[in-house]
Amino acid sequence: MVPAAFAIDAFADEPTRSERLYAYPVIPFVTGAVGAVPIGIARGAIEELTRLARTRKRAGRPLAEDATVQQGIARAEIHARAAESLLLEAVDDMWRTVKRVSRRRSSSGRTCGWPA
Predict the structure, then answer these.
(1) Per-residue CA distances from 74 to 22, 48, 80, 94 (Å)
(2) Is residue 114 part of a domain?
(3) Which residue from 6, 46, 73, 84 puts its CA 20 to 30 A from 22's CA?
(4) Across-strand partners of 105?
(5) For position 2, what pLDDT does the model report?
(6) In whole angstroms, what is the distance from residue 16 CA to residue 33 CA?
(7) Is residue 67 part of a domain?
(8) Residue 3 falls inside a structural domain
(9) Average pLDDT of 36-54?
(10) What range does the domain containing 40 cover?
């Protein structure tokens, strides 16, 4: 169990601790983690399709030699890379925002890091 002092309250108006990690809003954090799942699934599918294309044959030739199969794998790779790049850029933008946020005093007197 996570001690209460290190827990994050997703619905709090202010972070529970002053360290930067706790200033990172919970919803974007979860969104980034959840967004990585379909990208990982796509990567696994591309790897499996590539393996199958090397081992399966049509008309006596490996599917990997078929231009249509190559194009399909290449398009899937392009989409997976684009999704990954978009996700990493969004997470990086959020982290830069958290790092530059001005420190301010909360109504309880604690220093917090929520964006103003």
Answers:
(1) 40, 14, 10, 30
(2) no
(3) 84
(4) 111
(5) 77
(6) 21
(7) yes
(8) no
(9) 97
(10) 19-102
